[in-house]
Amino acid sequence: MIFSTVLDIEPTPAPTPRQRRHEQTRAEILDAAWRLAEETGIAGLSLREVARVVGLKAPSLYTYFDSKDALFDAMFAEGYLQLGAAVTEWTATEADLEPADALGTVIGSWIRFCQHSLARYQIMFTRAIPGWEPSAEAYAISVREYQRMAEALAAFGITDPGDLDLYTAVASGLAAQQIANDPTGDRWVRLAPTAAHMLFDDIERRKR
Amino acid sequence: MIFSTVLDIEPTPAPTPRQRRHEQTRAEILDAAWRLAEETGIAGLSLREVARVVGLKAPSLYTYFDSKDALFDAMFAEGYLQLGAAVTEWTATEADLEPADALGTVIGSWIRFCQHSLARYQIMFTRAIPGWEPSAEAYAISVREYQRMAEALAAFGITDPGDLDLYTAVASGLAAQQIANDPTGDRWVRLAPTAAHMLFDDIERRKR
DNA sequence: GTCTATAGAATGATAGAC
DNA sequence: GTCTATCATTCTATAGAC
Fold it and tell me: What helix, strand, coil percent values describe chain A, rounded to 5?
């Protein structure tokens, strides 16, 4: 899925071949940026390197992105759109489970989502890039996708703001530990069911 | 407390005045580095800026640190030594509380510790510096201080490795959310007692 | 759209005088 | 120990030819 068409709200007119090529190159640049950021960390990303991987010279990137910050912006937004798509998928596949067990699979999937790309995790959830923060437009996308996730959690009885904060802390903490201390393993993924039951039971108990 | 004397294992001979001045300047450099990293993020730290704050020129820093990485190493080790000292303090002041309540104060203090310095948090717990990782010596200090923390948690019945991993996930998750989303407030600090009881009760229940 | 050339700035680090 | 001078590199970004 191509970033800038996703952002369009008005019905898009059929793209010309020129526009198609433009979007495709843009997508290739983004893809190269993700792969490089995976190796160097998001803060170590270099436009020259991105250009080299795509087979362009650095100045040519400016045809597709106004600045390095704009590239970061596109990556940030893309990460949150991927999260939204993943949440939709998770909540569709928990049909016949007990709520606490279903929450366990959601948390496990969440950890895997974070683990899948260190660069994506860094740009979405940490402040790893000195001097950069998302633009208002990109930030709005993150807020929207967060809300979507919050709505999905309501199905598990997690509606109280404090409970939501507790949930995000537990889920993000599991992911952070997994990434920092066992980046290729499942040491904290395995704890997802236990954590889910612990959270679920505690919330239920406090409701009574 | 001055860093390099802490690292000495052999009984230290009385320092000459020259050595004292050297250690003092070294400490001033570290202090300046912390303050600057607080503003720019640890990854944005610049040796020229550090030198400027201390009142030296950049090359003079190399009398006190062999390289920028060595400065990072000293900051990393200092952070873990501060954590060790803080843990000792926390565990000494929980005398007359119920275990679950005492655990709540420990978690709250932990979040405050992380919140107190973003730079310290970044260098200790995230991989925010592209291309840098702690030396073997500095890493050994972090392992030792972690073990000290693990021993302190045994007093709360947290001894099972999985329970320890769950604890670190919850505690670090609360801190991460606090820093990322409410850096100057207490939105997740307030959840520390709830989280502590949730953890404590769950661990106790699973033991039976 | 892509390129070469380059501006302009910052960085970590070293050589060598004092 | 501290300095000046400088190296060598890297970086984002722009100007302008093609």
Answer: 75, 0, 25
How many domains, in total, are found in chain A?
Answer: 1
Hey, what amino acid is at A173?
G
- Supply the pTM of this predicted model: 0.92
Domain interval for residue A121: 3-207
Backbone angles phi, psi at B132, to 5 degrees: -110, 140
CATH number of the domain residue B169 falls in: 1.10.357.10
* Mutation target among B122, B124, B194, B199 for the A interface, most CBs of A within 10 A: B194
Report the alpha-carbon distance of residue B125 to residue B174 in Å, rounded. 13
pLDDT digits (tens, 9 = 90+) for B47-72: 999 999 999 999 999 999 999 999 99
Classify residue A143 as left (phi > 0), alpha (psi -120 to 50) or beta: alpha
Q: Is residue B191 within 8 angstroms of chain A, CB to CB?
A: yes
Residues A141-199: pLDDT tens digits?
999 999 999 999 999 999 999 999 999 999 999 999 999 999 999 999 999 999 999 99
- Pseudo-torsion of CA B160, B161, B167, B170, nearest 10°? -140
Asked whether residue B2 carries a pLDDT value surpassing 60, the answer given is: no
Q: Looking at beta carbons, which residues of chain B come within 8 Å of A165?
A: 177, 187-188, 191
What residues contact B92, with CB distance under 8 A and at least 6 apart?
Answer: none
Q: How many CB atoms within 10 Å of residue A188?
A: 27
Per the structure, the residue whose CA is closest to nucleotide C3 at C1' is A57
Q: How far apart are the first and last CA of chain A?
A: 45
Give pLDDT tens digits for A43-63: 999 999 999 999 999 999 999
Is the Cβ–Cβ distance between A53 and A32 less than 8 Å? yes
- Residues in Cβ contact with B208 at an 8 Å cutoff, skipping those fewer than 6 apart: none
Taking the C-alpha atoms of residue B182 and residue B188, their distance in angstroms, rounded to an integer, is 8
What are the φ and ψ backbone dihedral angles of A96, each rounded to 5 degrees? -100, 25
CB A26 within 8 A of CB A3: yes
